[in-house]
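go over whats below:
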Amino acid sequence: MSKNTFASDNYAGVHPEIMEALQRANQGHTASYGADEHTTSAVKKFKSFFGDSIEVFFAYNGTGANVLGLQALTQSFHSILCSELAHINVDESTAPEKFTGCKLIPVPTQNGKIYPDQLEARILRLDDQHHPQAKVISISQTTEYATVYSIDEIKALSAVAKKYDLYLHMDGSRISNAAVSLNKDFVSFTRDAGVDVLSFGGTKNGMMFGEAVIFFRPEIARYFKFIRKQGMQLHSKMRFISAQFDALLSNDLWKRSAAHANKMAKMLEQELKKITTIKITQSVDANGIFALMPPAIIPELQKECFFYIWNEKTSEVRLMCSFDTTEDDISNFTKKLRELSAG
């Protein structure tokens, strides 16, 4: 088995409890396309967290969940406002534009977050047929800089959305890490803070595959089953997504896994602060660390434990911790970093 890395929580394997759930689900025949007991149970679990009035749909991956969730909120003459670093703007190719037909309006950011005054300045020419019409504010929780929006920050963005009759969408690929960081339940910084549609991530927190799209206003979800099918995200053997979510949302597995990843990131942060050649650039709110590193040592260090360069011009790197990151991983990495820095 290959050694652990700090490249991404996507690099981690499947949590043993999730794998056991998959094995249990892999018994005999059952109905397809979500008409099975695993899906019924998983939906019930989601409703226990978010309330009975929600609508929940499962998808293969995060891009599918984000793009189709946004498609349910928009028409092709609309625009979507997001951070310039947002996954939908940087790492989902042109899938958002292709499937929604909308224009993405990227907002500059220093910490991954966007703020009401920035949005106010970009919501322009409403009802002008010559101009794309703003319809959605999309935020990531955690952000691409692994920072975490506070509840008040989300409520402030929701207020802007309501003022202009916009929707608030949340990309929650690492939502469990955010909940642990805030020490709040999911509903407090989603539905109760004014979020309309949420992509709830599972893959980055120990699942093999699968994400969920949650609608807090059921009327918005009226046609989503058709949108999901058209978008090729309807899994025929749905039980293998549902069984994973059922396990993730049971026995605090989501919290245990995210808490461990966040704890490892804080531990790594403390070790990096002891090395004078390293400068941490962002608040370590969840399971990611961003730091400036001497460019000469990066290639050799990557051989020891792979990670990504976030900004090649500044030699800013990203170090991500996972549910299976160990203290030995941190010790070995920082030991090698000290050796290279000294040399």
About this structure: The radius of gyration is 20 Å.
